[in-house]
Structures are given as structure tokens and as C-alpha cells.
Amino acid sequence: MRKGRDPARNRERILRAATAEFARHGLGGARVDRIAARAGANKRMLYYYYGNKDGLFLAALEEQYARIRSAERALELEHLEPREALRRLMLFTWDYYLDHPEFMSLLASENLHRAGHLRKSRRVREMHSPLVKTLREILRRGERAGIFRGGVDPVQLYISIAGEGYFYLSNRYTLSQIFGRDLMAPRALAARARHMADMLVAALRS
Amino acid sequence: MRKGRDPARNRERILRAATAEFARHGLGGARVDRIAARAGANKRMLYYYYGNKDGLFLAALEEQYARIRSAERALELEHLEPREALRRLMLFTWDYYLDHPEFMSLLASENLHRAGHLRKSRRVREMHSPLVKTLREILRRGERAGIFRGGVDPVQLYISIAGEGYFYLSNRYTLSQIFGRDLMAPRALAARARHMADMLVAALRS
Amino acid sequence: MRKGRDPARNRERILRAATAEFARHGLGGARVDRIAARAGANKRMLYYYYGNKDGLFLAALEEQYARIRSAERALELEHLEPREALRRLMLFTWDYYLDHPEFMSLLASENLHRAGHLRKSRRVREMHSPLVKTLREILRRGERAGIFRGGVDPVQLYISIAGEGYFYLSNRYTLSQIFGRDLMAPRALAARARHMADMLVAALRS
Amino acid sequence: MRKGRDPARNRERILRAATAEFARHGLGGARVDRIAARAGANKRMLYYYYGNKDGLFLAALEEQYARIRSAERALELEHLEPREALRRLMLFTWDYYLDHPEFMSLLASENLHRAGHLRKSRRVREMHSPLVKTLREILRRGERAGIFRGGVDPVQLYISIAGEGYFYLSNRYTLSQIFGRDLMAPRALAARARHMADMLVAALRS
DNA sequence: GATGAATGAGGGTTCATTCAT
DNA sequence: GATGAATGAACCCTCATTCAT
Question: Using the CB atom, is residue B31 less than 7 Å from strand E?
């Protein structure tokens, strides 16, 4: 019953700890020692499993992408009415960002580094073609039903849907400071969600 | 004709170098040595002028805020027709982000650190009340003229205006990778600008 | 047909890999992981067979000595005319060094460590008494035949014979650099071999 | 009267300590911490002055070459009778190796690494052209005087002169072990010196 | 005999900062 | 104001070795 009994679990714990550390301090500010301590693992094991700090970051990032895409697929958007599908996707994304601020942090770090890690990952690219495909079909259905205008690009649409809440949430600390207001108050969040849904519907109607 | 002949200029060069370094590597990844080297200054001078690394970061951040607010004021939005004023603000912001990616980087770093630097700055808070005031008046004018719906909060409005392009630009590296498409192509940028302006108008009409 | 089917072969492969690694990087620079990888063996096996890194080094060194002494015995110097015997030994040694640079490397490492490993090896000492005995008899035969001067010590003689080419070959990299010349060019090597043989004959004639 | 008062001296002490450490343990086995401790310096200063471990090794090696060449020039061989000049050079080299075993150690390390450091040094190459020139002139004088045979290459000659004692001294530890005899006994050393001088004269006479 | 997982000590290197001048 | 030299703590990473199976 020693610690090493369950390798998969140790691997997992390391990834968990790394995600938290990277989210909290960024890639440059993250400390390998802290990750090992949080994971209850020997520092050497990070390297054993993930090669180095960058490998660990990529693994954390890939996992985060996999998780959001997986949760997204569970929405089964393809079975919903087109307008409802997009509304659901937007609210899901908003809620996901709210519940998983670490995902936004990792994205910020990766963009700071100009996606140098992602560039080496095949997995992530493959992960996103189903999403684009689904959106394209929703748009097509909406267009055929005469409720969406044509010529909308699915990738641009996704960026609008996800981006609508991103700035608000990713920059909540600076925005709260410069405007002297708590953006995370429940009422403020609810108002924001409503506002976004309205914007989306207005933007797509034919 | 010694190097030290112009103190103000040296101070300025250090801040310039620091901004570039922080933007490129983040706060944690930035190196004091590189900043000094880029500035052509002795490392000791950074401390003489700015206290420490965090003081330097705050100075860089404050200056960035001052610059965008100053450029904004030059738009003289208060003299424009309400709808045009908001359209102009949105396009200005989009262009400003495009031309000054270092600003977005500093914002990302500061949010990673939960606005710990900004919290110590009075200057920045004072800097933003005129902006809120201006927006509030634009909204009032539009409402009185019957072209804007009522009940719109100026801070929420600003976040919508600025945020519309933020996700697209701040996350351009990861988005380009996961979707396998160059988001910075001139045509893509132009399409995005048009799309954003349309969204805004649709969202506010009464 | 499992991997472990032939223990002796695995042992052998480990020793082979270790010799190459020690020769290439020295004892201090050699990596146990690389040895295991090159041998296609589990790291634990190195310890199972050889105790530790130093044990492995000693085994590699002992084997190298055994090999050169064995090849030397195959010359059957005791059946040759004395002058020819020594000439043959010198050229054999030169060729052996040329063909087995790893032997010279191991010797250099062991001397850096002041022969700490060899000191623990009985095998190696026993391995060399036949060589000294053979040389002593060659010298005696030459002296009796009136072609060699007397008073020559067999150990000193061996050092002269082996050393003649050693510096040239063991230091070929630095010598090539400081003199800006390729010492390993075929013509240079041939000239060196001739030169050495001449030196030897001249040095021993009565 | 603090420690930092004399930078040149600190630099020098570091180089001194590094030379000893590299000689004793080889490049791979040398420890930066030990070098700093021996030099009584902060570890950081090694990097401040020499860049990294390899830079430090190269500096040590270059200095060793500079020293032996400098001592060599002090012999003023060009003013001696040709045979005497070469005899003096050989004995000088033998004595130098005896007194500076660290030089041989550094050479062994550098050859283990295939002269990777030397390859980056211009200084060392330039350092050796005067030596070759001097030897060439000695050979020419001896040939004109009818005491040396012609066609001797100065570089090959130097390798013979230096190499004669090199193997004996660089490999003294292994040789002493395998032959069970102390090669560093005064009588043995004297005998070796005599033997080498004899070999040289015999080898060059016309 | 053989294996993947695990370990603690220490490797070279770099950090932000400060000293004396 | 400005400088080169110096510092100690901590950085990421790797080492030879051993554990449980």
C-alpha cells in the first residue's frame, strides 16, 4: 500500500496540480517544486511522465481543451432548433468559463507564448474539426428554415459566441479596478448573460 | 556628451524596454537584465527610478492606460451623433488593440495576477471616470433622441464595445492553431470589423 | 522468444553499450540511462550484473585489457626473430589503437581517476605478467645474438613501443586543432608508422 | 577591504580553482560548486566572467597552452646549436609535464570531447604558429650543417618530442598498476629522461 | 531474470536585487 | 545619476540508485 501503487492516479494528480499552478501563476511564474508538492509526488516524476515543464504545460492545455469540447458534445446541439442551439452554446460557454477560470488562464499563457506549445500538438487540431462541422450544419439548417441570414462563417461565429463573455471574465480583475465595481456580483453576471443572448439573436436574424 | 546626460530620456527608454519585455514574456517570464540591456541602461537604474520589478510593471501598465485614454479623448466623442460616437469608439478600440498588442499582453499579465498592481494605483481609477461620464452622456443623448433603448449601463456597454474584438485578437495564436486558419489575414480582419459594428447597432436600437 | 531468453547475451550487450558510453563521455560524463537504452536493457539489470556504475566501468576496462592482450598473444612473438618481433609488436599496437579508440578513452578516464578501479582488480595484474615475460625473452635472445644492446628493461621498452603512437592518436583532436592539420589523413598515418619503426630499430641497436 | 575589491584577482582565483578541479575530476566530473568554494567566490561570478562551465573550461585550457608556450619561448631555442636545441626542448617538455600534470589532464578531457572547445578558440591556433616556425628553422640549420637528415616535418617532430614522455606520464597510474611497479620513482624518471634523449638523437642523425 | 515506477540529493544555471565607488 | 562587481536564493532539471512486483 505504498504511494507508488497506482501510476495512472499519480500521473493524474500531477496534471491536476500543474493545471492549478499554471493557471494561478502563468507558465513563467509556475514553479515545478510547487506542482510536485501539491501533487504529493516526487519532482522527478513530472519529468518521468511529461518530459519537462513545457511538456507538462502542453498536457494540461490539451486536457483542458478535451474537457470543454467533451462537455460541449454532451449538449447534442445537432438535435436542437438552430436558434436554441446557438443560445445554448453561448450560455454553456459562459458558464464553462465561469466555472473553469483556469482554462482562460491557460489560454492567456499560451497566447503570451504565441501558441508555441499548441503548434506541436496534433491532438488539439483534430479535436476541433467536429465543432466546426456541427456549427456549419446548424447554420445551414437555420438558413434553410429562413431564420438565419446567409454567408456566416462558422469559425467567426464561434469566436463571437465565445468571445462575448471572454473579455468580461478574463479581464474581470482589471475591469473591476479601473471602473471601481464588482463585476462578479450575481446580478451583474445575470445581466451580462441576458445581454449576450440578446446580442446573438439580433446579430443572426435574417 | 556622456550617456547619462539626459535623465528623463533614460527613464523613458527604460519604460519603453520594460513594456516590450513584459508584453513579450509576461511578468513572471520577463527578465530585468534584458530590460536593462534593451534600454542600454545600467541595471541599477531600474531600481533607482522604479523601485523594483513590480514597480516597473505598474509604471508600464499605468502608462499604457494613459495612452489609450488619451487617444480616446482625442476622438471628441461628445461632439458626435450618438450612434456614430459608439461606432467610432468601437472601431478605434479595435484598431488600437491591433496596433498595440503589448497593451493586451500587459492586461493579460495583470489579470493573471488578479490586478495586484492596479490595486495600488490611484491614477488609473481616476483616469477612467471621464470615460464613464462620456459614455453615460452619449447614452442619454441617444435615448432622448429615441434611437437607443433605455436602461443600458455605460460600464457594461464599454465592456461590450471593447470586448467584441478582444477575444479575437488576444487569443489569435491559439484560435489560429485550433482552427487551422490565419485570423490576421487582412480580409479576415476587415470582415471582423464590419461584423462587430453591425452587432453593436443591432444591439442598441430601441 | 522473450527478450530475457538469453542472459549471457544481455550481459554482453550491456558491457558493449557501457564501453561505448564511457569511451564517448568519460566516466563522469557517462549516463547510466543511456547505457541501458543503448543495450536495450532495463536499467535495473546493470546493477544486477555489475553492482554499480564503477563496477561496470571496471568490467569494461578489464575486458578491454583482456582483448588487446589476447590479440597480442596471437602474434606469437616468441617465434619471431627479435628485431622483427619488436617491429611487429609496435605496428600491432599502433593499429590496435587506431582501430579501438575506445580503449585509449577508457585508459584516459582511468588515469584521471588515478587507477582507482584497477587497484581493485587482480585479473588485470595477472594478465600482464606473460607480456613482460615474453618481452624479456625477446630482449635476451637479441642480446645473445649480438643485435641488441644490453641493460634494457622490458617494461620501459613496452612503454616506449606503445607510447610512440599513443600521444599522436589519443591527442589527435587537440593536435589537429592547434596545428591546423588533419593528423588522421592516410598519408600522415603511414608516415607516422614508418617513422616509429625507424626510431625503434635505431634505439635498440647495439 | 571587502572581498570584491579586486576584480582581476577574483577572476584569476576562479580560473586557478577551475583548472585544479577540471584536472582532478575531468570536465564531466568537475563540480561548479567546488570551483566556487575553492576560489572563495560566489558561484554566480563564474557565470559573470566565463559564461558557463564550458566557457570556464576553455579559458582554463587556453591559459594552460599560453603558459607552456610562454615558458618554451623563454628557452630561446633559436640561439642554440640544433641538436642541443631539440634536446633542451624535449627535456623541457618532460619536466613541464612532470611539474604540471594538470595540463595533461586538461588535454585528456579536451580530447575526450573531440576538441569541441578548442574549435571555438582562435587564440590557441595563433599561439602555435611561432612554435612551428622555430622548429622549422632549427631543422633547416641542422640540415645545412649536415647533422640532420632532410625531409623531417616540424609538426611530426614536435609530436615525437612531446609524445615521448607523454604516455609514460599521462598513463602512469594504469601502467603502475598493470606492471606492479612505481613509475614515479626518481631513478625510474631519470632513466626515462636519458632514454628519451638517446632516442631523439639517434632518430635524427643523418 | 526482468520490469516500470519511484526517489533524494545535487547538477548547472539564472533570478531579482544590492554593494562600493 | 551612473556603474561594474557581487550576492544568496531558487530555478528547472538530472543523477545514480532502489523499490515492489
Answer: yes
